[in-house]
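It is worth pausing here to work through a concrete case rather than discussing structure prediction in the abstract. The textbook approach is simple: state the sequence, then state the predicted structure, then interpret. We follow exactly that order.
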Amino acid sequence: MAAPNKGRRQTGAQGKPGRSLALILIAMVALVGGMFWAKQVTPRLGIDLAGGTSITLQAKPQPGKPNAINQKNMDTAVSIIERRVNGLGVSEAEVQTQGKDQILVNIPKGTNEKQARQQVGTTAQLYFRPVVTVAAGKPTPAGKPSAPPSPSASSKAKGKSSSSASPKNTASPTSSPQGRAVTDALKAGPTPSPSAPSQSTPTPSPAETAAVAKLQKKFAALDCSTKAGRAKAGGDNVKPSDPTVACSQSGDAKYILDAAAVDGTDVSSAKAVIDQQQGQWIVQMDFTGKGSKKFQAVTGKLSKQQSPQNQFAIALDGAVVSAPSVSQTLSGSAQISGSFTQQSAEDLGNVLSYGALPLSFKEETVTTVTAALGGEQLQAGIIAGAIGLALVIIYLVAYYRGLSFIAILSLLVSAILTYTLMSLLGKGIGFALNLPAVCGAIVAIGITADSFIVYFERIRDEIREGRTLRPAVERAWPRARRTILVSDFVSFLAAAVLYIVTVGKVQGFAFTLGLTTLLDVVVVFLFTKPVMTLLARKKFFYSGHPWSGLDPKRLGAKPPLRRSRGGATAASSVPTDPKEA
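Step two, the predicted structure:
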């Protein structure tokens, strides 16, 4: 009774190939429809095929840190720049060190190229500095007091209010002696703070007085209305513990800022959101536990001051992004508000989220890369792939004859799935097709064809043993399936390891190889096997036509042995109709 049950299971397996074909057909239609819906009908191309921008960044010496330019800091900078660029949806951007003090960044054309270029070299040194004084951005004439900027230049700070006392050992806005001298000297000027204590302030030393005078002179001469003037403000040579002068990003205001009270490393996350009350884009920041304590301490002290000493400037790479006023103690989180667009808010949030670069960089060279050379190589690669595909088809037709029809259809289905997925992945995860990826797709032709050959040879082996086609198709499948799965697993494992341990363009080869290997399993299981089951019912194939590729005589099939009623065995001819099997 076991044999009939097994036969019924095989018959059931043979009788439902249409379900698998319907499933893969639906998947193909959905992918093609999604490709047109996303308006991404062609794969995105990498810089070697589409061209783009190549930027060379030169590391600059750091003040007080003679050994800052080292391999560890350069590797950290590469990692941060790569995350920043990928955070904008730019994939296939190549970021790698060049020599001991340079970083090479290649950004493909057709991506957020302009945004990426603005962010690759941005140091993103973020500091929260108490404001000492503020004035209009143009130089102050001698003997004439400077007018402060309009109230719209500042913004409100939001956060969690706290009534607890400021913790000990936290940064103070006047933590350095020089910063204390600057604050005290300016508070002693024409606009003293009424909330300041009545006790006399310490008399600054001659060195501190000279430093204050020099800073005030620089502040008076500072012209923030020009790009050159803004470049002179602050600068990379200013230490966080020193007071400095700075310009607003728009150039309409200039500031004297005290020593940094909180820095960018104290920010745990940052993201662009819309202020529901104002309807404007802002950047919401959350602090680390240590940063929250620092922020609470400085806002607690600033809230007791009068304008503009109750403001803290959010300075990014020396430029004041925002200078909100503080009216209460804040902790936990803060927001940067100003004249942000969605793009500028997202850019700032992206930069702050991935952290500051450990080094400062300048653009050494910016080169536009043309796609002429890559186009020639792509054309050569396509020609090579076409020749290889043609040779595979010729071999299949010559050796497998009618079975080659199934193989060619399977290759066509695999090509459609590969093309649509590459196009959609370009839109979805930023995948960009480069020359190594094209090589991976060409190699995949051989992997896919190998799966067909394994299955066809198993079927032929069953026919050589004297079985008819329909039983041979079903008996050959379990053995072929195991071989195909093992082979594809090894290929996928190699692709995964190659993707993990390599960088740059080689990852494109590994990604494409892994993708096409997975598609090979899908095509063989959902298309090749069901089509083979259906065609086994056609007389052209089950009758063993000479051009079917399954002719028992050409394959050297053995006549099946049948047991007679008397117990003797007798050889019979190979049946040609499946009903005889």
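Step three, interpretation. Residues 1-14, 143-181, 185-199, 566-581 have pLDDT under 50 and may be disordered. Residues 55 and 144 are 45 Å apart (CA to CA).
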